[in-house]
Write a structure and sequence with these properties.
six-stranded parallel beta sheet; 41% helix; 2 domains; globular; Pantoate--beta-alanine Ligase, Chain: A,domain 2; alpha/beta; homodimer; three-stranded antiparallel beta sheet; Rossmann fold; 301 residues
Chain lengths: 301, 301
Amino acid sequence: METVKIIETIAGVKEIIKRLKKNGSTIGFVPTMGYFHEGHLELMKRSIKECDETFVSIFVNPMQFGPREDLAAYPRDLRRDVELACGAGVKYIFHPGVKEMYPDGFQTVVKAGPLAYGFCGASRPGHFDGVCTVVAKLFNIITPDFAYFGMKDYQQLVIIEKMASDLNMGVNIVKCPTVREKDGLAMSSRNLYLSPAGRAAATALARGIQKAADRLIEFIYDTRNARGDIISGIIAEYKDDIIKSGFDSLDYFKIADAETLVEFSGPDSLRRADRIFIAAAAFIGKTRLIDNIIVKNPLLN
Amino acid sequence: METVKIIETIAGVKEIIKRLKKNGSTIGFVPTMGYFHEGHLELMKRSIKECDETFVSIFVNPMQFGPREDLAAYPRDLRRDVELACGAGVKYIFHPGVKEMYPDGFQTVVKAGPLAYGFCGASRPGHFDGVCTVVAKLFNIITPDFAYFGMKDYQQLVIIEKMASDLNMGVNIVKCPTVREKDGLAMSSRNLYLSPAGRAAATALARGIQKAADRLIEFIYDTRNARGDIISGIIAEYKDDIIKSGFDSLDYFKIADAETLVEFSGPDSLRRADRIFIAAAAFIGKTRLIDNIIVKNPLLN
């Protein structure tokens, strides 16, 4: 078995990167908060396949958690993560402490723009600024050619892609499909929080999104249908469905343009969109789960 | 005479940088808004002396100007700048257009922290966010080993130094002394705005700061003197002096710790500071001039 190198300091990573770049190696990067599931491992495998060297970071970033969120409870198991990453073929894990990443006096923030205003950004103020700041730091430390992100956190992905492009970071953002359990539930470290009953209920999140997608496609095809309330109808039905299935509350369910994340004002803007983003966040007890799907507009694709 | 290469696109710069880095060259960088004076040329000469290759950027950054500030009036003369830079030995000038730096949909902001709250930051809301954002972009485009900044914009300098360190940019920030006219006026592209009478009055800015510095040093030495109002006394006197000399109004005159930019609460904190930052901003008509001095604490240095 190959051994994996766990690096805890920024200087340590920079030294290795310098050496690898001298050899002309391309660097792939998978930033994570650890507690790996198949979704993480897919990102790692893809990076290993596409790049000469792959770095995985494991850092539960305090800056992206709100004061009432689950920072302390967020699952951590470095030993298990190292084994899983090693099994996937990873050779370098960056695992810094909080003080290494945010020393005393730290104060500069990378602030996301309008892409962060809705969806999870509306429910979690400051969350995406925390994400952008830590990802900017990690990009600057690791200077990857490619960075791999899962579509499950789609809003995060488009915000990071925008940041990398706005700030000329020279990192290619690679979008990787959401990995799902057999019953359709999107893999997430937070699924661990669920009771058996909650776990059974959770499948309604993805099922409802798929149903909404099917209804939207049908509506788009039926171009004689100009009903303005199609979206509000789908949203009301979705909410009903997931509450009946055992969710305690819906945070949001929204249908928007997949590029701009702007919600549709009516059937016309919906039919003109190239790709449609259907996303939901909902609570089972204190556990907040999210999921989404991107639908290509059948009239345009 | 050596020729200077003027590059207008980000892709163009990145291509050259890639080639230079392959040769193992160290890159020096001097970001400017153009309309060069001796201060700019000193930065360039120092970079040329210390680095294998030097890039100068000329970009009047709209994002760091407030809606009522002098963006449109800011002096520009590319031809003269190119001649002066060339004369100083510069080979690469990056001169992008506004759309190249801020394409439609641009939205990510690098936000400075508490270092930006006082002094010019208080008078110019958002100014330092604009500075940080453009400098972050320029650093990512040029990936310099060393970047040269003048001490005349001292608050800007410490904010950028903090940004580079907070975000792990790997750029060494080099502080270069303020270059002054023979009568002491700090060189600035904005001195151009002054009428002959204004130009004569302007010397009071630097003269008063030096006088304040002398009085502070005297006070620090005289350790039996515990008068709490020393700083407010100096400030009142400074304001009087510059208004009498022909300034129309004082924006600020402050005395603070040179590292944290926190103002002193009294004689004790003053005597404990390693270096003292004395800074002023004042108006002659619409022209806002700034100046500062850093005083080493004679008890500690």
